Amino acid sequence: MSISQEDLTGKENVWQIICDILNKYGDIPVYPPAIHNGECTSPYLVVKEDGGARVPSYSSQYRYVRIMLYVPRNQYSKLDEYQKQVENIIEEKIFPLLLPTGQIESDYYDDNYNAHMRAMLYRYVRRNKLL
Questions:
Q1: How does pLDDT run across 67-92, given as a tens digit for each residue?
Q2: Which CATH number is 69's domain given?
């Protein structure tokens, strides 16, 4: 299955499409970086643009998106289940717009939010109009 036209309507950029679809189909709270405040009391995602690189020999760029999963301190065992839920939504609703890179960072405990965090890196292709 791939992304529907309905999910693209009215969206200004890929980041917004990703956030809206994760929220709509997974009922997952999604935040931009540095917006969620306070202790993590339930799972949520932070989605951020994470740079880019030119595709060799083409006038396109790989653009990277980092999806960070947060779960409360006492729910570390649910991190794998939560990751699978997010991956399934991406595979069923956002693919082929968003492609996995296979890069998953080591889990990290964030004292500021009393939460465990795991980050996954995805990419999409954007045409570079200047090349």
A1: 999 999 999 999 999 999 999 999 99
A2: 3.30.2000.10
Segments in 1-131 forming alpha helices (H) = 5-8, 14-26, 79-89
| Helix and strand element counts for the chain (H, E) | 3, 6
Which of 4-18, 23-37, 49-63 bottoms out in mean pLDDT, i.e. has the lowest? Answer: 4-18
User: CB count, 10 Å around CB of 21?
Assistant: 24
Asked, as a colleague might, if the bond just before 33 is cis with ω within 30 of 0, I would say no
Exposed, middle or buried, 64 (CB in 10 Å: 0-12/13-18/19+)?
middle
Q: How deeply is 24 buried, as exposed, middle or buried, from its count of CB atoms within 10 A (0-12, 13-18, 19+)?
A: middle
Asked if residue 45 lies in contact with residue 31, where contact means CB atoms within 8 angstroms, the answer is yes
Q: Which domain holds residue 38?
A: 5-127
